[in-house]
Specification:
This protein is mostly beta strands. 0% of the residues lie in helices and 46% in strands. Strand 5 and strand 6 form a beta hairpin.
């Protein structure tokens, strides 16, 4: 069992930046870097969509076109590290959504929510005009 807790969301003006943080904890102390990770978002009335994925070894993948060049995922893969980040720059009003962190033991399709085993509770990001 892995518990994921996101933070860093908030209200920001268009063009601004936010950095989301996802901290993982596990009673079995399985190394955090045993999991593939993803950041998803869900806007009101829309389906949950992948924003970006990150492999166990720290390679980013599956950026949606709209965030390429603006968002960047990173993970701390040092020993006992348990944190991944989503740096969001040049934010737009259409980025407004609840952002979720997810972890999967072996993710093949990073864009598929069903491939992930654990989810955080989400953090709200609101971008004003």
């Amino acid at each position: 069992q892995v518990t994921l807790v996101e933070s860093g969301g908030g209200l920001v003006q268009a063009g601004g930046s936010l950095r989301l943080v996802c901290v993982a904890s596990s009673p079995t102390h399985k190394p955090y870097n045993s999991y593939d990770m993803g950041w998803f978002r869900q806007a009101p009335g829309k389906e949950r969509e992948i924003v970006v994925g990150c492999t166990k070894t720290g390679h980013s993948t599956s950026y949606i076109d709209d965030v390429k060049g603006r968002f960047a995922i990173s993970r701390d893969n040092t020993a006992n590290a348990n944190t991944i980040y989503l740096q969001m720059d040049s934010l737009k009003p259409e980025d407004t959504a609840v952002y979720y962190c997810a972890a999967g033991r072996d993710v093949n399709n990073f864009a598929a929510p069903e491939e992930y085993d654990y989810w955080g509770q989400g953090t709200q990001v609101t971008v004003s005009t």
